[in-house]
Amino acid sequence: MTTQFDVIVVGKGNAALCAALSAHENGAKVLMLEAASEEESGGNSRFAGGVMRFAYDSVDDLKRVTELSDDEIANSDFGTNTKEEFFDDLFRLTSYRTDPDLSEILVTQSLDTMAWLRAKGARFVPNFGRQSGMVNGRRKFFGRMPIEVSGGGAGLVQYLDATAKKSGIEVFYDTRAATLIFDGERVMGVRVQQKGKPLELRASAVVLACGGFEANPEWRTRYLGPGWELAKVRGTRFNVGDGLKMALEIGAAPYGNWSGCHATGWDRNAPEFGDISVGDQFQKHSYIFGLLINSEGKRFVDEGWDFHSFTYAKYGGAVLQQPGQFAWQVFDAKVKHLLRSEYRIKFMTKVSANTLEELAAKLEGVNPEGFLKTVRAYNAAVMKDVRFDHIIKDGKGTVGIDPPKSNWAQALDTPPFDAYATTCGITFTFGGLRIERETGQVLNVHFHKIPGLYCAGEMVGGLFYFNYPSGTGLVSGAVFGRIAGRGAALAAKSKA
Ligand SMILES: Cc1cc2nc3c(=O)[nH]c(=O)nc-3n(C[C@H](O)[C@H](O)[C@H](O)COP(=O)(O)OP(=O)(O)OC[C@H]3O[C@@H](n4cnc5c(N)ncnc54)[C@H](O)[C@@H]3O)c2cc1C
């Protein structure tokens, strides 16, 4: 059976939905292909917490994205995330490797794309719960990311899906794209397996938006390195590198940090793949207020280097490198009220004790003497004359220990003590394809455009290296999804 469309979009996460909506508004007849069943559809986007990082200078910019009441405006300090600040974060965290052209597009189009998402039905709200605290009676936002999508990533997918349905965009579920139909010059469609049966689907242009290879243990070991097959997958089980494989097979250029990925601390006993009923809550992002302890009882990272938004995506990898691939996060009673909501869910690997000695005996897999020695040295190294302040990088660090703790260092001395066992949860891989930034068209290994082939989302290489500022995945999926959808629709039109 052969069917003809203008644009086929492979995937049904945020990037794919944005590409489909954008292609549709540019006049294309669009088909989306989703490897998952309708029930499991939506990719990693559906698992996302829903924080969104975009450039804004003022409350007026935020009002393009969400409704804010006069009260909210009067009683909140939303800060800024100017283009310069966003650039600085991207460059600083990627060790100055991020592709300047791609990151310029991401940063400069981020606000406009958020407004476009709103016009496509997405609803955004201030992130009071996770990104703010009270200072002198006023709510102050930190981390340069005050807005989240209502209902999290699942909400975003639902909003965009509803608009796609209304627009008449067709979706084939249980349809796994397998290879591209390529005549040696241009891409003309996709060969798929639909409920186990082969099918050829023709289109003037194809947008690949079907994720990285984070759910493929063999590829993880191959590209990220030994041990990565042991990571848990935080999201969907369907992102196994199919889109990358299809594109590389016809000569597309690989690009970006193929040995790098986004990975966080994740409950040690979480299931192999994400559980949509728990979403992102297996994560444990409040380690900045405590200590991370490995099996030898030692610390191994600077827990307080920066807000978690700027360290969490690489500390999962640091946990994976520890013996046994686990770490305990240890807190005392002074910071209990600061721990995020994920520390209060039903499914957690947690122990508590009234003394450090009692706690040491309860930390499964940890050398107790090593742990007690580490805590004694840490407590003695904490700066006593600097005030603790969780809303800012308070500079309350340690002196004379390695690794240091640069901010939010307080002695671990107030019972009861709580500890949470974590391992590494992989979110998504950084390696992708090289694209032409204005259209999202995929380039071949000689940097020539491949007619008819576009890509978006996790599949775009060159943006993230080593690390990642939180909230950028969904926004980059939307920015490059919108671009690729438009590029593909215009290409289809010009061919017609
Ligand atoms: C637990 C968790 C929390 C997160 N929190 C945030 C957050 O708060 N903010 C943020 O910005 N980012 C967050 N992220 C990252 C964010 O989810 C991703 O960056 C983003 O969703 C990627 O979007 P995408 O469309 O590229 O991929 P996905 O959403 O993963 O979509 C890929 C799609 O392709 C489909 N697919 C795969 N292979 C095939 C095939 N062969 N044929 C057809 N379809 C196929 C999949 O089923 C899926 O529908 C989080 C991720 C996770 C896992």
Overall geometry: globular
Question: Uncertain spans, ≥5 residues at pLDDT below 50?
Answer: none
**Percent strand:** 15-25%
The assigned structural class equals alpha/beta
Could you give the distance between the termini?
A: 22 Å
Largest sheet: 9 strands, mixed
Q: How many extended strands?
A: 22
**C-alpha-based Rg, rounded:** 23 Å
Heterogens: flavin-adenine dinucleotide
The number of helices is 13
Q: Helicity, in percent?
A: 25-40%
Tags for this model:
496 residues; binds flavin-adenine dinucleotide; nine-stranded mixed sheet; 29% helix
Task: State the gist of this model.
This protein is α/β, with parallel strands linked by helices and 496 residues long.
Give an overview in words:
By secondary structure, the protein is an alpha/beta fold. 29% of the residues lie in helices and 22% in strands. It is built from 13 helices and 22 strands. The strands form five sheets. Strands 1, 2, 8, 9, 10, 11, 20, 21 and 22 form a nine-stranded mixed β-sheet that branches. Helix 1 (14-25) runs parallel beside helix 7, helix 4 (83-93) crosses helix 5 and helix 11 packs across helix 12 (368-381). The two termini are 22 Å apart. 53% of the residues are buried. Bound molecules: flavin-adenine dinucleotide. Flavin-adenine dinucleotide is lined by residues 10-16, 33-36, 41-45, 47-52, 153, 176-177, 209-211, 234-236, 238-239, 242, 274, 280, 427-428, 457-458, 471-474, 477. Flavin-adenine dinucleotide (FAD) binds next to helix 1, strand 9, strand 18 and helix 13.
